[in-house]
């Protein structure tokens, strides 16, 4: 099960970074014009989250020391980012993305609970 969590984390991290690179390179971030500092801070936080997800995921897959701690730290960032995205897309009325981020939220919470439970055993 931990290996699945690691794979989920790596894929999620790569997708987060890839999504922002795509949006930035195609000019699909209109908030950069209206709130550049806030938007760049948000994007920076999401890039850090994606990087931590990749790092934590690979450490889980390779069963490295302190892997669970790093993974839990990364998943905390991830869950916050998913909640933020959920609210953004709900406000936009894009319900496909609302459902998608709900699934990501559930996967994040399940991953945390599995890692915490495995550390208690």
From TrEMBL:
The keyword Membrane applies. Keywords: Membrane, Transmembrane, Transmembrane helix. The chain crosses the membrane at residues 7-25, 37-58, 70-89, 95-116. InterPro entries: DUF8058. It holds the Pfam family DUF8058. The keyword Transmembrane applies. Residues 1-117 form the DUF8058 domain. This is DUF8058 domain-containing protein. The lineage of its organism: Bacteria, Bacillati, Chloroflexota, Anaerolineae, Anaerolineales.
